[in-house]
Amino acid sequence: MATQPEFEPVFAALREILRRNAGKLAVVEDSSRRFCLQGGLHPTHKRPMPVAWVEIGKNYVSFHHMGAYGFPQVLKNISPELKARMQGKSCFNFQSVDAALFRELEELTIRGFAAFRQAGFMP
Question: Total domain count for the chain?
Answer without folding.
Answer: 1
